[in-house]
């Protein structure tokens, strides 16, 4: 099978985008590669397609659990066997998945970077036939990147176990400095480099400084039709702004990580199916969302950096049609953003105090906890240890940045089930336990024999509807099967997970890289200043500002952003005055027809000359006689 045949068979596309085919060709030639493809550029196909026509397992490293689950789900819908290992999985589930990667037909193994250092994974990896390593969100390996994660520094372990397996690093946003660090830290060997322009020819970038964001917001939504996303900073703000839009006859929904899975899924469906026009969301929304007809992305709070802004703005116009990305900011927003970045800088004392509180919360002894995950409720944690939510969250993110914990936002993991007994033993159990027999039969009827070989996702509600009982009765029955060691059952989870990525240390002796903490603080400040410069400046094409930030050498203005349009308008006003002066001067010297006037002026813009003539006629400085010859009025 060729790469194009695989693309058609599994994804239904008839052609690749530039430069997907060249990247795939490099991977198939066993070459390492770095691919910088902006949002919507089709990064996943660059490793999925070559893996499908190569023998072995493709191992994909990514820090985003929601994205892992989304891609695994999409691959399974296409008949491709894929699994994801992350903090939401049990030891037994992970053990089973890794066995299937070694001995089964799993084609894609998605894994978080923290899991690479576990002995269980490394022992199984050595037994796998790994055809490709794909590192997604590769900018996370760089301390100069906008989302640095220390566990990414250990990814090169993959190369030590399989030195001949090619590796591809993918990111949507990386400066030259970040790209170089990606190559060094991943130990890429003479990598091929692929990058398309950061310019989006169909996207108009606009910034509006305003004292009244809500009025401007309504004005923009009324003038620019089509589907929209509005990004706000706070969870509370999403619902408040959505209510405001509804009150002004604009259908909307809201989305943030604090909602339940059912709420998020329901609101997302409304928006995806165009039952509401606007989605008001925090930056938790958008990852893995493939809606091509978004015409407008609005930010009513300044993003912290241009990388995040470019990624979020890039969700507009994926179908190639004219779209808009608008930032609305109040003068006070600059100071607010500066304060937020400064607040991110936590003292060693704060980090140690919160670390100790986490150890108490999870009831972990010194030396325990490596790789163990716990459900984590931020409000409950802060209440128990008398802490404020906002600064505590920033401290947790800083501990995550130091690589001692991983805090995942809430994501939905459906219930999972796996028969531990073989078919003979299960039949004997059914005969001896008549009350549980209907539940066992229904699982087999709905989900088939696959439940004997691996964990499967199940729905208690679906089983209950057929058995005409309650979902709780189904859960109780499945829990009994687990207690009797006939099956393994993991109820659905929709809570954030806290994972200890190192053994729990004595908080007083907690090792922290203070130089790196200071360096990262400087990185955040520089990125914030680049974002505020983008918003405040009114002299340079906005797309050019973004391209220069990502070290793309160009001098071509986009011609569509607010700065370019204002310059064009100013230039037209200047030309218009010049044309009007020429008209009155030429006609005063000699009456002539409109065609003779155009020939005498020889304008660069004939339409602008026609507008200048219309204005001159309206002001009665010239007039037409009965033969349509222009004369000066003498006024």
Q: What this model shows, in words?
A:
This protein is of the alpha/beta class. The protein folds into five domains: 3-195, P-loop containing nucleotide triphosphate hydrolases (Rossmann fold); 203-329 and 528-549, P-loop containing nucleotide triphosphate hydrolases (Rossmann fold), CATH 3.40.50.300; 339-411 and 496-512, Winged helix-like DNA-binding domain superfamily/Winged helix DNA-binding domain (Arc Repressor Mutant, subunit A, Orthogonal Bundle); 415-490; 562-632, Arc Repressor Mutant, subunit A. 46% of the residues lie in helices and 15% in strands. The chain is built from 26 helices and 21 strands. A hairpin with a 5-residue loop joins strand 20 (622-624) and strand 21. Helix 5 packs parallel to helix 6, helix 14 (348-362) packs across helix 16 (389-401) and helix 24 (562-589) packs across helix 26. It starts with a helix and ends with a strand. The mean pLDDT is 91.
């Amino acid at each position: 099978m060729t790469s194009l045949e695989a693309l058609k068979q599994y994804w239904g596309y008839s052609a690749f985008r530039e430069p997907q085919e060249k990247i795939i060709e490099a991977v198939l030639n066993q070459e390492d590669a770095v691919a910088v493809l902006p949002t919507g550029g089709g990064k996943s196909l660059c490793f999925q397609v070559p893996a499908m026509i190569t023998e072995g397992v493709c191992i994909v490293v990514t820090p985003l659990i929601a994205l892992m689950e989304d891609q695994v789900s999409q691959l399974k819908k296409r008949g491709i066997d894929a699994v994801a290992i992350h903090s939401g999985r049990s030891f037994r589930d992970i053990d089973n998945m890794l066995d299937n990667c070694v001995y089964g037909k799993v084609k894609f193994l998605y894994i978080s970077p923290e899991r690479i250092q576990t002995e269980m994974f490394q022992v199984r990896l050595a037994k796998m036939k790994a055809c490709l390593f794909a590192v997604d969100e590769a900018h996370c390996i760089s301390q100069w990147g906008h989302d640095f994660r220390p566990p990414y520094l250990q990814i090169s372990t993959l190369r030590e176990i399989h030195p001949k397996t090619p590796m591809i690093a993918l990111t949507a946003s990386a400066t030259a400095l970040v790209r170089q660090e990606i190559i060094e830290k991943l130990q890429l060997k003479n990598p091929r480099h692929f990058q398309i322009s950061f310019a989006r020819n169909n996207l108009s970038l606009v910034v509006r400084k305003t004292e009244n964001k809500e009025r401007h917001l309504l004005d923009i939504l009324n003038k620019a039709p089509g589907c929209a996303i509005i990004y706000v900073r706070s969870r509370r703000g999403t619902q408040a702004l959505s209510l405001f839009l509804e009150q002004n006859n604009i259908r909307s929904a809201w989305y943030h990580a604090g909602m339940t899975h059912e709420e998020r899924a329901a609101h997302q469906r409304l928006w995806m199916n165009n039952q509401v026009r606007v989605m008001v969301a925090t930056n938790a929304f958008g990852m893995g969302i493939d809606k091509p007809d978004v015409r407008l992305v609005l930010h009513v709070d300044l993003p912290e950096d241009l990388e995040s802004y470019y990624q979020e703005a890039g969700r507009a116009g994926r179908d190639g049609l004219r779209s808009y990305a608008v930032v609305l900011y109040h003068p006070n927003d600059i100071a607010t953003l500066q304060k937020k970045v400064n607040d991110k800088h936590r003292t060693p004392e704060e980090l140690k105090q919160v670390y100790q509180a986490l150890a108490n919360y999870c009831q972990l002894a010194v030396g325990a906890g490596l790789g163990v995950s716990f459900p984590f409720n931020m409000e409950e944690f802060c209440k128990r240890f008398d802490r404020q939510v906002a600064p505590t969250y920033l401290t947790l993110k800083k501990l995550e940045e130091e690589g001692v914990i991983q805090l995942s936002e809430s994501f939905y993991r459906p219930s999972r089930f796996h028969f531990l007994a073989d078919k003979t033993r299960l039949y004997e159990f059914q005969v001896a336990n008549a009350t549980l027999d209907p539940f066992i039969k229904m699982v087999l009827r709905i989900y088939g024999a696959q439940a004997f070989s691996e964990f499967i996702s199940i729905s208690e509600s679906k089983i209950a509807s057929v058995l005409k009982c309650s979902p709780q009765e189904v859960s109780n029955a499945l829990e009994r099967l687990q207690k009797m060691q006939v099956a393994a059952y993991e109820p659905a989870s929709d809570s954030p997970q806290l994972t200890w990525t190192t053994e729990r240390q004595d908080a007083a002796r907690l090792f922290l890289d203070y130089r790196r903490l200071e360096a990262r603080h400087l990185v955040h400040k520089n990125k914030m200043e680049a974002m505020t410069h983008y918003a405040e400046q009114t002299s340079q094409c906005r797309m050019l500002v973004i391209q220069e930030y990502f070290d793309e050498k160009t001098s071509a203005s986009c011609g569509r952003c607010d700065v370019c349009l204002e310059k064009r308008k100013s230039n037209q006003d200047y030309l218009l005055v010049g044309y009007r002066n020429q008209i009155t001067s030429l006609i005063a010297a000699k009456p002539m027809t409109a065609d003779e006037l155009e020939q005498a002026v020889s304008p660069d813009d004939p339409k602008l000359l026609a507008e200048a003539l219309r204005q001159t006629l309206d002001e009665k400085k010239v007039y037409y006689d009965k033969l349509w010859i222009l004369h000066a009025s003498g006024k």
